[in-house]
Specification:
The complex is a heterodimer of chains A (394) and B (136). With 394 residues, chain A is α+β, with helices and mostly antiparallel strands. Helices cover 19% and strands 32% of the residues of chain A. In chain A, helix 2 packs antiparallel against helix 4. The two termini of chain B are 20 Å apart. The chains are: A alpha+beta (394), B alpha+beta (136).
Chain lengths: 394, 136
Amino acid sequence: MQRSIDEINNKIKDGSVVVFTAEEIIDVVKAKGVKRAAQEVDVVTTGTFSPMCSSGAFLNLKQPREKIKLGGGWISLNGVPAYAGLAAADIYIGATAIQHNDPRNDNGKPGKFRYGGAHVIEDLVTHKKVQLSAGAYGTDCYPNKKREDWIDLADTNDAFLFNPRNCYQNYNVAVNLSDETIYTYMGKLKPKLGNANYCSAGQLSPLLNDPYFRTIGIGTRIFLCGTEGYIAWAGTQHNPDIPRLDNGTPRSAAGTAALVGNLKDMHPEWLRAVSFTGYGVSLSVAVGIPIPILDEEMMAYVSVTDADLKAPVVDYSRFYPYGEGDPKLAEVSYAELKSGQIEINGQKVPTGCFSSYVNAQRVALTLKAQIDQGEFFLTQPVSLLPGPADKKEK
Amino acid sequence: MLKTKVVLSFPPSSVEEPITYHLIKDFGIMVNILRASISPGKKGRMVVELSGEESIRSQALNYLESKGVEIDELAAEIRYLENRCASCTACVPVCPTGALDVDRNNWKVSFFEDKCVVCLSCVDACPYRAVEIGPE
């Protein structure tokens, strides 16, 4: 059985396309088997909604009458510094940037990180005005040296989200072996294995449903924060050469994707700033990737369940920060993590998550509905994300 | 426009500083002083209501912290803001009483006010700021 992207798009056009979410497909495959399910189903939709610090937005600001060259100068939005090392009107606001006067972690207690770049991006998407302060050195063609203003998205020519890394294919489960509470990007971790935090949509997670990147690559059209976006490149830290289970999925963090989409079309429901006490600011975005069922092999990949996916348990008090001690305390399945409790060294540890499964389900269902209604067409990637070296040789 | 009631505790060194002036003049914060006890050379305490846009209020609180002022929110109850909650479940393992819990059938997080003992553990654990400290 073989199916092409063109065939799928023709079925989307004539309304005969059959779509399930990566959660729904599990029961379909259980009932019908991989072979029949592959014959009957054209597309499986995935979804995730989770914080990722490697996020930000490019803005091109409309010039005031007397023009200003921001490149080489400085700019802040609501007191949060943005990057001004580009052309006269282009800036990049990164999710983790924080206000100049934020005390960070310097007051002898974990900082609150109340407001940062991610909050600026969320405010812009909510169509709020943000306070712009900028300074420049002035040139013959851009004489203006100072700009104080209130701007919103309508005051930009272009605004697009560009996240260098998203959609981590699997991730660590974080615990704390020390005697004191620690504050990390995996949240507040209580001492002596007081809790275990994980961050993945598991069976709904986009890249876990195409573990070898047979369908996902540069140019793949995706659901991004309520509008369409694209995969621009392999994400930073993309590493396909990770030990894998028999079902092909990596046993720890592996592939990633760089994402791009028009900020002006995004919806605040699908983009949220987050503040991690003692760590910093980050941005949660909703991402859904459609997986075309090209053949039976793809159907087998998308039918993985939480019980088939495993993540390493890592100590964030010694191993992660200092590289000391046991690199992996245990390996647990997402089904165990989702039960609310895992066992590490004989101790029962309660689990919490940062990836919203409810929102991941909503993303996958929304994308399914868009494909069903002929509003979203699949793309043939220009180039697939790099797969593992040993898989290539086969 | 957001409002918060907070207790500001001043170290003796900053009692001489016109902090309320700076809050109003530099940040445009509306300051409503509800209670104050300030004497030169001693630790001061002030209960205030601060109102202002989120990004401005954040800069004002940053300023206070940089001056060594301790900020404690008046804790009488935990308010659960359902529209901010992403049901990520980060709060669930840190809540000692099950007041914040997830239904593992539909993955929706709920707050059961009668079980909450206002220990505030969830406040640091929630990245979406979906739990707020409610005033006395």
